[in-house]
């Protein structure tokens, strides 16, 4: 990885507040323009936690220097042999004392900063027993080889990968990694100096979410992994790609997807994300990581072991995870990333209610896993439904689903801060204000908005290239600041924690397969999808545009970290790759540097007092929401015009699927595993399953099917 110093020439291209000349001082937590209070409580209330690696790295350096000093200080033979022996004994005694001091200097900081906090956490965790109700494991537990080298480090340290290869960790922001083979659930790592380590609470009012998506890793999209779809002409989504791959046994069949899971995102990607000053990732996953039902062509269960691998890498580098259930049975939106293009059978059509029953069960299974003490610090946020189309579903019906999901999840986790994840709800492209009101009193409900410029219907947008300097970006920065700042701050007041779960640098809809394999860009200009041809004006404009979006959104996850190469050997949707922009000068190398961008371009002045209502963060009143107006099952399913009780449904008599916990290998070859994938031992309700003897319409193609009615 190339070094990315805090002060970079690329910043001079942006119309934003430059980094201070003193980079060390710039590592302090930034002041945010939308906070009325200029001194965050995380600064005034306590001293910043010292990096666990700060002391140990210095101590190791001291030890090494001390050892060299002893060798260099070996006494020269004197005329008197007796005098020489005394010198030897004296130096040996001094050396022994120095060694003891060094050992204490190394071990005490590591023990109190890393080992002891994690031991306390581990002591509080107990393995749950799900009782006598039958469970089935959905995937083979992960086997992770034990590292044989260092177990922690900071900037410049050597990281040894599972295959024995190494790389140098680049993190100039004070972050440290921790990977102890004998303590695999150690949560002592942090991505940077201004973000608390995983074993400390994250304050959503004072610490910003600087995040990025790992899109296309476990839920495939043609524009993110174009080469996979180019290999199989006619494939347009993961459904059709899975069918084509399964038929191609000579190339490995459906197991080709496992190779994608194994290689698309690597540990070095996660390390690079932490080294870029980011502190969260959003991880899209699909229900087929748990199971598939007959007729569904997806690769079943296999992705789960790789999902856990990513979660463990995030633990290692101190990154928190917003786990995103991106694809659900029947599809919630008919997009290619919903599993099957053109089909919307979730809460819509004859099988809409039945597919929602399955979806709730998968939300339940994931909640049980991530609420375990071993994982709750790594996954403190769960986006339970990606981009449901409310215009198809209906607002009241979708709200009924959200209310039921909240009830179910909090029965598993309990109420209040620290009990299970934040529940993130997408605004269905209606604006975050559409989520306010009906969630009042709910326990840690958050809002998720995906504010893209690329899909706003403008075929002739102004170019991003207006040269470098103060006017870079041709007004795009001001547009972002005007559009986003007030929206986000209003939502923080009315709803609670609010994030932009997806956004990008795309100012037009150019990009290979961005509109789908069979789609085409509506942009009336010439699409230049080869970033190697871009001039300084384009890069300066994009840097300013990205900085303005980051400044105005405040809490965000860029879509996406990486775009795969096409068969041409280049990235053909470069506006959507954070990694590519980071390496080539159109993404900020320090996300804090964007603060002040909106003020510099004349954007609106918006403020937020930095406080949430107590219930929003799990305090007093959390869980007191009234759900009577939105009953479950819903009173209306669109597409068929009937109540859910008048439609086909599943019966709760099936075997519960449990997500398996990983098994790690300790330094002595011992197996280490904790938990059983199920947090709440009292949650023993069976899973939904088809009623024996009943015939159901195709759950992925039932929008226009005749309603056979409920089956007894």
Description:
The protein is of the alpha/beta class. The protein has 15 helices and 19 strands. The protein has helices spanning 41-44, 52-72, 81-123, 226-230, 238-247, 256-263, 267-275, 302-317, 352-370, 390-393, 395-413, 476-494, 536-553, 578-584, 597-600, and strands at 135-137, 143-144, 152-153, 158-160, 166-168, 177-178, 210-213, 280-286, 320-327, 381-383, 422-426, 445-449, 498-500, 556-558, 651-654, 656-658, 663-665, 671-672, 687-689. Strands 13-12-11-10-9-8-7-14 form an eight-stranded parallel sheet, covered by helices on one side. The chain has a three-stranded mixed sheet with strand order 2-17-18, with no helix packed on it. Strand 17 and strand 18 form a beta hairpin. Helix 9 runs parallel beside helix 11 (395-413). It is globular, with a radius of gyration of 27 Å. Residues 1-91 and 101-133 have low confidence and may be disordered.
């Amino acid at each position: 990885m190339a070094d990315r110093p805090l002060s970079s020439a690329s910043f001079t291209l942006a119309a934003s507040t430059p980094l201070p000349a003193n980079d060390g001082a710039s590592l302090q937590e930034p002041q945010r323009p939308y906070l009325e209070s200029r001194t965050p409580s995380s600064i005034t209330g306590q001293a910043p936690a010292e990096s666990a690696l700060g002391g140990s790295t210095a101590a190791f350096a001291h030890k090494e220097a001390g050892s060299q000093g002893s060798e260099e200080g070996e006494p020269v033979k004197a005329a008197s042999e007796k005098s020489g022996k005394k010198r030897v004994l004296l130096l040996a005694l001094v050396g022994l004392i120095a060694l003891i001091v060094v050992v204490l200097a190394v071990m005490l900081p590591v023990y109190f900063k890393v080992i002891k906090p994690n031991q306390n956490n581990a002591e509080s965790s107990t393995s749950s027993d799900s009782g006598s109700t039958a469970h089935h494991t959905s995937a083979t537990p992960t086997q992770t080889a034990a590292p044989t080298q260092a177990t922690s480090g900071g900037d410049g340290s050597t990281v040894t990968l599972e295959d024995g290869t190494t790389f140098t960790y680049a993190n100039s922001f004070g972050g440290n990694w921790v990977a102890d083979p004998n303590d695999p659930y150690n949560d002592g790592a942090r991505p940077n100096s201004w973000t608390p380590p995983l074993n400390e609470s994250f304050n959503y009012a004072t610490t910003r979410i600087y995040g990025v998506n790992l899109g296309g890793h476990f839920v495939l999209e043609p524009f993110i992994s174009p080469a996979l779809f180019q290999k199989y002409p006619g494939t347009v989504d993961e459904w059709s790609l899975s069918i084509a791959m399964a038929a191609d046994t000579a190339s490995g069949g459906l197991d080709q997807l496992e190779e994608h899971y194994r290689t698309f995102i690597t540990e070095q990607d996660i390390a690079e994300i932490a080294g870029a000053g980011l502190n969260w990732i959003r991880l899209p996953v699909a229900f087929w990581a748990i199971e598939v039902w007959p007729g569904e062509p997806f690769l079943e269960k296999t992705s789960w072991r790789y999902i856990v691998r990513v979660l463990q890498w995030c633990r290692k580098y101190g990154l928190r995870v917003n786990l995103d259930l991106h694809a659900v049975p029947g599809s919630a939106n008919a997009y290619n990333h919903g599993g099957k293009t053109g089909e919307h059978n979730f809460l819509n059509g004859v099988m809409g209610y039945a597919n929602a029953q399955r979806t709730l069960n998968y939300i339940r299974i994931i909640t049980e896993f991530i609420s375990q003490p071993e994982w709750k610090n790594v996954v403190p946020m769960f986006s339970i439904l990606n981009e449901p189309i409310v215009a198809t579903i209906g607002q009241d019906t979708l709200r009924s689903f959200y209310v039921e999901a909240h009830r179910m999840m909090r029965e598993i986790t309990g109420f209040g801060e620290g009990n299970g994840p934040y529940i993130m709800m997408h605004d269905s492209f209606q604006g975050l204000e559409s989520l306010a009101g009906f969630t009042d009193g709910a326990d840690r409900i958050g809002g998720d908005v995906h504010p893209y410029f690329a899909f706003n219907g403008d075929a002739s947008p102004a170019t991003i290239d207006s040269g470098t300097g103060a006017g870079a970006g041709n007004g795009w920065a001001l547009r972002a600041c005007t559009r986003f700042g007030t929206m986000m701050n209003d939502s923080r007041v009315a709803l609670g924690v609010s994030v932009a779960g997806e956004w990008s640098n795309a100012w037009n809809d150019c990009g290979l397969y961005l509109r789908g394999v069979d789609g085409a860009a509506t942009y009336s200009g010439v699409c230049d999808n080869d970033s190697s041809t871009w001039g300084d004006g384009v890069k300066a404009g994009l840097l300013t545009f990205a900085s303005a979006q980051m400044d105005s959104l405040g809490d965000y996850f860029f879509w996406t970290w990486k775009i795969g190469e096409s068969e041409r050997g280049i990235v053909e949707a470069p506006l959507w790759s954070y990694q590519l922009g980071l390496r080539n000068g159109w993404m900020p190398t320090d996300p804090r540097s964007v603060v002040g961008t909106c003020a510099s371009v004349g954007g609106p002045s918006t403020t937020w007092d930095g406080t949430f209502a107590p219930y929003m963060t799990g305090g007093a009143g959390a869980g007191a929401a009234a759900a009577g107006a939105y009953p479950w099952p819903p009173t209306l399913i669109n597409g068929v015009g009937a109540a859910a009780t008048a439609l086909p449904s599943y019966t709760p008599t099936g075997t519960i699927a449990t997500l398996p916990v990983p098994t790690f290998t300790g330094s002595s070859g011992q197996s280490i595993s904790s938990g059983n994938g199920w947090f709440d031992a009292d949650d023993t309700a069976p899973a939904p399953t088809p009623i024996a003897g009943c015939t159901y319409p195709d759950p992925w193609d039932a929008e226009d099917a005749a309603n056979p009615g409920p089956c007894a």
